[in-house]
Amino acid sequence: MIGAIGALIAGAVVWRLWPFGVLFILGWPALLVAMTLPTLPQTLESLGQSPEVTPTYVAFYYLQSVVVTAICFFIAFGIRTWVTRDRSPQSESAEDA
Description:
The chain has one domain. The chain has 5 helices and no strands. The protein has helices at residues 2-13, 20-36, 40-46, 55-83, 89-96.
């Protein structure tokens, strides 16, 4: 949930998709995984799953976070682009000509 909210905010704020968007899409999930990694075994145990955290599990956990972040980022980026589509200076110069 925190990753999705952060991605929506970043998608609305980041004006250029490259390289800031890609860096955000890869960096934000890494930060979230690093923050939750110390308590992950306790969380898994309370959910009734095996509390063993393997490198494969962490890799899939990170990949899942990247996918959620990317989807939310591109949704917000697309909404911002759609909302501001008529305010570009190119359309004003075309009307003057």
